[in-house]
Amino acid sequence: MPWFNRRPVCRLVAGVTLAVGLASMAHAQGSGSATLDAIRTRGQVLCGIAGTVPGFSLPDSQGVMRGLDADSCRAVTAATLGDIAKTKFVVTTTQNRFTALQSGEVDLLSRSTTWTLGREGNLGLEFAWVNYYDGTGFLVKKSAGVKAAKEMDGATICVQPGTSTELAIADYYRLNNMKWTPILIADITEIQGAFLSGRCDAYSTDASALATFRFSQGPKADDLMLLPDIISKEPLGVMVRKADDKWFDIVRWTFIAMINAEEKGITSQNVDTFMDSKDPDIRRLLGLEGDMGKALGLDNKWAYNVIKQVGNLAEVWDRNITPMGVPRGINNIWTKGGLQYDPPIR
Ligand SMILES: N[C@@H](CCC(=O)N[C@@H](CS)C(=O)NCC(=O)O)C(=O)O
Known about the structure:
The protein has helices at about 10-25, 35-40, 70-80, 95-100, 115-120, 165-175, 190-195, 205-215, 245-265, 280-285, 290-295, 300-310, 315-320, and strands spanning about 45-50, 60, 65, 85-90, 110-115, 125-135, 135-140, 155-160, 180-185, 200-205, 225, 235-240.
């Protein structure tokens, strides 16, 4: 049983032990963030990813972790330590991801995890930013002839346990007075195999992962169809432990910096040409004035390093998600009609 589910006294003891443990990792002259101090001592950012999802986090043929979630980790490392090579990827599962963050095994979690009240209220964790606005979808075989979710009364659905998907499907079926049978399989390869071999009528998870899984089937993608219904909101966010506000700020503002760079047309390729910019916003973003990095407990070049080494938000999207054939839609920045809106860096 995870510590957060035990009786309150155990929760208190575990919480104090964790706090003392993290505090003792801190520098003598700490930054005010136990996580940041531990990262500096270690020289690495430990980032929890899935490591199994194309477009989000999957090693390439050279063993390099690729994807939107992986690049989210790299961006935080660039801001914090100035060098993306100092990112250590830690593979987590849908079931152990929260314990990995609670126990300090990772400094942040960037693993297609939906921001919900239950998770933020109950786990001692919080969401610093949304890196993908998603929703629950259904993947079916075209041969089944199903065209809409409402036609799936009585269906058998493959879903990973411990996910918000499980709850979203239950809610949808309850609301529509329909019946379903869950087939709960934790392992991603196993669940996808179960769906392909016909053990379930549909495979359900975040629509993004269904789209990238379908894409990864190559010519066989044509046999599969993503139903048009998106039955829930799944804002996928990057999580940190509660009660380390400085670290929370660093993670949150790293994403804001990437949005701001996109808004200003600053990319990894052209960032150096902006170093004599007269635009006060750009000057503060790139650390030329204003001590914005210092305010976060970082070097003033924090955002420059993010942009130079990882890119702006559009570059991260285009590198990882565009090749999967998924349009940016609501994941665009606000000036292009999307939801990614950046508060001012000033
Ligand atoms: N967003 C949902 C679903 C998360 C989830 O199940 N993600 C899948 C698809 S993106 C995944 O990571 N699978 C890979 C694995 O389990 O190795 C949640 O937070 O519970």
